[in-house]
Design brief:
Blueprint lengths: L3 E9 L5 E8 L7 E2 L1 E2 L5 E6 L8 E12 L2 H12 L6 E6 L10 E5 L13 E8 L26 E2 H9 L16 E5 L2 E3 L15 E3 L5 E3 L5 E3 L2 H11 L2 E6 L2 E6 L8 E2 L4 E2 L3 E5 L6 E5 L11 E3 L10 E3 L4 E5 L2 E8 L20 E2 L2 E2 L1 E5 L3 E2 L6 E12 L13 E12 L6 E2 L3 E6 L2 E5 L10 E4 L10 E4 L8 E2 L6 E11 L1 E2 L6 E2 L2 E5 L5 E3 L3 H4 L1 E5 L7 E8 L5 E8 L8 E5 L9 E8 L5 E8 L14 E3 L4 E3 L6 E3 L10 H12 L4 E10 L5 E4 L2 E4 L7 E6 L2 E14 L4 E9 L6 E8 L30 E4 L21 E3 L3 E4 L2 E7 L4 E4 L9 E12 L2 E5 L2 E2 L7 E7 L7 E5 L4 E12 L1 E5 L13 E6 L5 E5 L10 E7 L9 E5 L1 H9 ...
Parallel strand pairs: 1-3, 6-16, 11-17, 22-55, 25-48
Antiparallel strand pairs: 1-2, 2-7, 4-6, 5-6, 5-56, 6-9, 7-8, 8-9, 10-13, 11-20, 12-51, 13-49, 14-15, 16-17, 18-19, 20-21, 23-52, 24-52, 25-47, 26-27, 28-38, 29-38, 30-36, 30-37, 30-43, 30-46, 31-33, 31-35, 31-38, 31-41, 32-38, 33-34, 39-40, 41-42, 44-45, 47-58, 49-50, 52-57, 53-54, 55-56, ...
């Protein structure tokens, strides 16, 4: 909905500065109204949390003294109080007489106006608008990609990206809201890492540095995710990089406070001070400009002098009553850098077995996804420890007494992949075993020789309990690192049925065995062994905090909140560093001066810095000109250069800058400062620029024979009508104290003991519950969906199941063609079903000549003649054979693997109980076991009572367990909401460019000028035609009157040729002319015939009669008898005019509206 300008006001300050205020209302349509303002005009207030001079966020609001003059104004105020919502009304204040340039300030009107007085007109109401920064406290740091999605999956992104994500959550007013320009970010940040490409004006560190947001969320014992609010995230970023955020002149400024020590040179028109870069608020933000000065040369000047001493009573004046205070000299500054080097990614082990069962030739499985991790390739090793609790019930129905003493053996594997929606590089890998050694492979294990195992000691029902296990063949659970990947990854621990090598029978991955191994029972045979297992829980995974809150009714409530990250399970999945050890939770870094002062400052938790392990959630990437690289944990940061003489870590640099800036006496000035009417501009050889106090630049106060002091804005109020600021400023300066820095470990739950490099024992406690269904769930499936390949030995791991022709061999996990004749190849022992559609995937390597193709039954797939991964859809006809064949004589190549998966066309479901989905609707199927999502399309409408969904043929990449959730396809929903290209509207089919077969919808209006001179009574006049001097003149008499017209005259007199079937909805005219003559205007339609000169029949589609009242008085009328008259393709619309008087003159406009059918 458009934001229409509802009110505007122009006023002048005491020194004749011009201001223009506009109030835009998206609920308003109508003419702009002038509003009156109370004394002093608009006031802009800035404030911050706390009293520290390094406050990272200074938020603003603007008060408008709105004068309610009448009931129209009163209705506006009433709407704000009773019906409007936040972001309905935008205000913008311009330092001009109209909405030109960027506004000085803009924001959304708050709906809370406080108590209203019942007084007579006129009276004043204070309207308040906010820049939105404060509202960030009420906005959770959730990703905008989908509901309840955090930002953890994004991995590393530019700092400007994160700032843009945060600011865009308050929708800064811009062109969409009718403001002259869009807001943008402006960064005066100049701390560089040695790995940065350069420290030039155009190279912005915020744009060329990446961080991630893994610490901005916590997960409780029931998998409920809590995120921090956006204000706190913005605050943390600002603190980490020593900058503050403030809005002014339609820019969100990010300024490192130490930069204010930069002196200014140059001229008024071309100053030089702090290097600054501009970034848009697009998604993602882009670098738009660079300059070597902060602010602008007009209304955001960097350096301006208080002139009480140099020019009393003129220019910038500090008024009487100024007070000075001191900030305490700092002795010590400290911070907790939380690198989270001991993060545990364990999320449990499967608590049930799939048994010795298979579906379509693939073993059934049970999977538990572990917590996501970033850049696991940086680890030197991986460590896995699995604690499980065992119980035995010897009273089960068919208990085998030989199993009174038993042990349990698990066979499993680990799958590593990029989770859905995350950013990363590399292919899915599987951790396999060969004897007691382990390696990562691109193919999943298929038999006992490849599976990882662990087993328990022998136990009884009385001695069963918690047992800690590590993979077979490892000393402490260490496993090889995954390589060749980057970004965000996730491990899955999978129990899957597998085949016995000798017998080919399916095996249960869980076995319960008696002492002596004379009796072995499948894990699924609970009635025989009575054994259950579960994950050991960890009450120390986080902290429970009792929060007391007061609701709007004044009622106190206690909320027990879980604070922490990671899993509630006691197992351990760690990434080990180069010392094959586990890192600490963080470091407490303290920097101290050698002075005798006592004041200390603690900055709290710092979430980003130079981490010892690239996988740490706090790690930082910087751009070196060609690639993104991790920062050195030893620290390579400096101010204004990539070659600092004494490089230090980012956190230590932060502490140093705090101490350097407050190791001497720092004054806080509480003052009223104004600009007089005289000397309100600065002048030098480059020109004239206004003296204009602003919250971005600094004020210079001369101090007699002593050095001047530079003051930086802290908080205050700008009264625009009085040209006055009432506020607090502090002087910026830099000392050179002698500093010493110490660092001590912050110990986490997983931090190794002093005598060990590896984490200690397993924790116990807490409880866990199953995951909730995804939002938007409308039903569930009732049976598993298979992704099994029908091919036997499609990985070619053994020389079996394939009948090979001449020149075809199987070895080293490959099917090899060596100079194979055309039509010769290998046929599989498995078969397919005629008429079913299959997805065929295979990989060709080692290609040197010829080609190959897959043939299902009598249907051949597409021939391939190069190395690569191929996916094809094939529907076999007549026979059921599976073959890979040479397409040409002398084919030489390798096929490394093939899968053939039947595409599913029907999904068994629970009855929805109502009709919800139509043919061609899209929906998402969510696997409850692993969270995989599949976007599917219906191939037939769903109705109440259906227990299946018919879908477009789809090959699933993995088996989908039961239940799977059927939910709204949110991405498709958003796309179709914005730009509908499919489905139906009111029963009409929608395509990419048509609705119900129509390429155009809506209305358009035809309008044209008309005139006549000397028209006589008794005749029907038509338009002269375009070949006359005045194309809108009615001067030709139609011999056929209103019944017929010649074909040639119809073409001359027509104003419209209908191209698509439509309806005339309405018409009207505005005409003046000879006094008291009655003019009759009619609209007629006629249908010309191709290559035919016959007269055309006229059919009336509307008419009106008006009595003219001289040339100076227009008469207005609507056409009567237009009851949405239908028009067909190829018809002409012809206006005809007659009069009841002699020598009638007229002129005017005829218009009518057409609507496509």
């Amino acid at each position: 909905m458009a934001y229409n300008r509802r009110y505007e006001s122009t006023y002048f300050s005491l020194n004749q500065r011009k201001y223009y205020l506009e109030i835009r209302d998206q609920n308003f349509t109508g003419s702009t109204r002038e509003c009156d303002l109370g004394a002093g005009g608009c006031q802009i207030h800035y404030d911050m949390d706390g009293e520290e001079k390094y406050s990272p966020i200074i938020a603003s609001k603007m008060d408008i003294p709105f004068i309610v003059k009448d009931t129209i104004d009163e209705l506006f105020i009433k709407s704000i109080l009773e019906t409007y919502n936040e972001e309905d009304v935008v205000v913008a204040l311009y330092r001009a007489t109209s909405a030109t340039y960027a506004p000085l300030w803009s924001g959304y009107l708050l709906m809370d106006l406080g108590a209203q007085q019942d007084v007579s007109f006129p009276y004043e109401v204070k309207l308040t608008a906010t820049d939105g920064i404060g509202r960030l406290k009420d906005i959770g740091f959730w990703s905008d990609e989908s509901a309840q999605l955090t930002y953890k999956h994004k991995g590393h992104e530019r700092i400007t990206y994160w700032l843009g994500e945060i600011l865009n959550k308050i929708t800064p007013p811009g062109t969409t809201q009718g403001i002259t320009t869009d807001a943008h970010m402006r960064a005066a940040v100049n701390w560089y890492n040695e790995e940065h490409d350069n420290a030039g004006t155009t190279f912005g560190p915020l744009y060329q540095t990446q961080i991630k947001m893994g610490m901005m969320e916590s997960v409780d014992a029931s998998d409920t995710i809590t995120v921090r609010n956006c204000y706190d995230v913005l605050k943390d970023i600002c603190i980490t990089f020593g900058m503050r955020c403030i809005y002014w002149k339609h820019s969100f400024y990010f300024i490192q406070l130490d930069g204010y020590n930069t002196s200014e040179s140059g001229t008024l028109a071309n100053p030089t001070n702090i290097n600054t870069r501009d970034y848009s608020l697009a998604d993602p933000p882009v670098h738009t400009a660079s300059r070597d000065y902060l602010g602008s040369t007009w209304w955001t000047r960097y350096n301006q002098t208080i002139e009480n001493q140099t020019a009393p009573g003129r220019g910038i004046q500090k008024l009487e009553g100024t007070a000075y205070q001191n900030f305490p000299i700092l002795k010590q500054v400290s911070a907790d850098f939380m690198n989270a080097g001991d993060e545990n990614y364990y999320n449990g082990f499967p608590e049930s077995t799939p048994g010795p069962n298979e579906t379509g030739g693939v073993g059934d499985s049970e999977t538990v996804a572990q917590l996501t991790m970033d850049d696991p390739q940086s680890a030197t090793n991986i460590m896995l420890r699995i604690p499980l609790n065992f119980q035995q019930d010897t009273t089960v129905a068919s208990f085998n007494t030989a199993l009174f003493m038993f042990k349990v053996k698990f066979s499993f594997y680990i799958k590593a992949s990029i989770p859905s929606g995350a950013s990363g590089t590399g292919s899915t890998q599987y951790l396999k075993r060969a004897g007691s050694s382990y390696s990562w492979s691109a193919t999943s294990p298929t038999n006992a020789l490849n599976l990882m195992t662990f087993e328990t000691p022998f136990m009884t029902a009385n001695t069963a309990g918690d047992f800690n296990s590590i993979p077979f063949g490892t000393q402490n659970g260490e496993l090889p690192p995954i390589t060749g990947v980057t970004g965000t990854w996730q491990f899955e621990i999978i129990l899957q049925a597998y085949t016995d090598i000798s017998s080919g029978a399916w095996k249960d991955p869980v076995e319960i065995t008696n002492i002596g191994s004379t009796v072995t029972a499948n894990g699924e045979d609970y009635n025989i062994h009575g054994v259950k297992w579960s994950n050991v829980l960890n009450i120390a995974a986080g902290n429970w905090i009792n929060q007391v809150t007061t609701n709007q009714n004044g009622v106190l409530s206690n909320v027990l909140t879980y604070v922490g990250t990671g899993s509630p399970y006691a197992g351990q999945l760690f990434l080990l560093n180069s010392s094959l050890s586990l890192g600490t939770k963080g470091e407490k870094i303290t920097t101290t001066t050698n002075e005798s002062d006592t004041s200390q400052l603690f900055l709290g938790q710092i979430n980003w810095g130079d981490s010892p392990l690239d996988s740490d959630v706090s790690s930082i990437l910087v751009y070196n000109g060609s690639a993104w690289v991790f920062t050195d944990p030893s620290g390579d940061w400096g101010v204004g250069t990539i070659t600092p003489s004494s490089p230090i870590s980012l956190t230590k640099l932060l502490l140093k800058e705090y101490l350097d800036g407050q190791s001497i006496h720092i004054y806080k000035m509480n003052a009223r400062i104004t600009i007089g009417a005289q000397d309100k501009n600065s002048v030098d050889a480059s020109g004239s620029r206004p003296k204009y106090i602003n919250p971005i630049g600094r004020l210079v106060e001369p101090n007699g024979t002593y050095p001047s002091k530079n003051y930086i804005f802290l908080r205050g109020t700008f009264s625009t009508g009085d040209d006055t600021w009432d506020g607090e400023w502090f002087n910026i300066d830099r000392g050179t104290p002698t500093l010493s820095t110490t660092a001590s470990d912050i110990v986490g739950l997983n931090t190794p003991a002093a005598s060990s490099s590896l984490p200690g024992g397993f924790m116990q406690g807490s409880t866990s519950s199953s995951k909730m269904a995804p939002p938007g769930t409308i039903g569930t499936t009732t049976a598993a969906l298979s992704a099994a390949s029908v091919v036997t030995n499609g990985e070619f791991s053994t020389d079996s199941a394939w009948t090979k022709g001449s020149g075809v061999t199987i070895a080293s996990d490959k099917l090899t063609f060596t100079s194979v004749a055309s039509g010769v190849g290998a046929t599989n022992s498995a078969t397919i079903t005629v008429g079913k559609e299959y997805e065929v995937k295979f990989t060709v390597s080692g290609f040197s000549s010829g080609g190959c193709y897959v043939k299902l039954g009598a249907t051949a797939g597409t021939t391939v003649t190069a190395n690569g991964d191929y996916t094809q859809s094939i529907t076999p006809e007549s026979t059921t054979a599976i073959a890979i064949l040479s397409s040409a004589a002398g084919s030489t190549l390798d096929v490394e693997g093939i899968t053939i998966v039947e595409k599913i066309t029907s999904i068994p479901i629970t009855d929805f109980g109502e009709t919800i989905l139509a043919d061609n609707d899209r929906f998402t199927l969510v696997d409850s076991q692993n969270g995989n999502e599949y976007d599917l399309r219906l191939n037939a409408a769903q109705t109440s009572g259906n227990t299946t969904l018919t879908i477009d043929a789809y090959a699933f990449s993995e088996d989908v367990g039961v239940p799977a959730y059927i939910s709204v396809n949110e991405k498709n929903l958003i796309q179709q909401y914005q730009n509908k290209t499919e489905g139906t509207i009111a029963g009409m089919d929608v395509t990419a460019n048509q609705i119900d077969g129509t390429t155009q919808l809506g209305e358009y209006t035809v309008s044209y000028r008309v005139e006549g001179s000397g028209l006589a009574t008794g005749s029907d006049y038509v338009l002269n035609g375009e070949d006359h001097t005045k194309s809108g003149r009615f001067g030709v008499i139609n011999p056929g009157g209103t019944s017929t017209i010649t074909a040639v005259q119809a073409l001359k007199s027509s104003k419209t040729l209908i191209d698509l079937a439509l309806t005339i909805q309405s018409g009207r005219l505005a005409i003046s002319g000879t006094n008291n003559h009655v003019l009759t205007v009619g609209l007629y339609k006629a249908t010309p015939v191709d290559n035919d000169a016959a007269d055309l029949t006229l059919t009336s589609i509307g008419n009106t009669s008006i009595t003219l009242k001289t040339n100076s008085k227009p008469r207005l009328s609507a056409f009567a008898e237009i009851s949405e008259a239908a028009m067909d393709e190829g018809e002409l619309i012809i206006p005809i005019i007659s009069t009841d008087g002699e020598s009638t003159n007229f002129r005017g406009v005829i218009t009518f509206t057409l609507k496509y059918n």
